[in-house]
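Justification of computing resources. Each target in the renewal requires a structure prediction run like the one illustrated here; the chain below, 92 residues long, is used simply to show the kind of job we budget for.
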Amino acid sequence: MVPSRFIITVIGIDKVGIVAGITRVMADFNVNIVDISQTIMQSLFTMIMLAEIKEENFDLSSFQKAMAAKGHEFGVEVKVQHEDTFRFMHRI
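Resulting structure tokens:
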């Protein structure tokens, strides 16, 4: 089976616990981080991750809702897009 890969972006005002909260949801859904970049620019928190899941019947919609809910809890915007969708939307 070929793993499904996702691009996860997190943007908002920095607060303690954002990374822990987001990665906890990922662990709950058995989503693995393949690559990660995170920075804080004048109190603006930004993080982008390449993540993958190896389950065939992964419920992407439930994962997206859980991630958005966790983001709302921290006051940040969390987007989860399938890698193919992300690449298609950002091609030149």
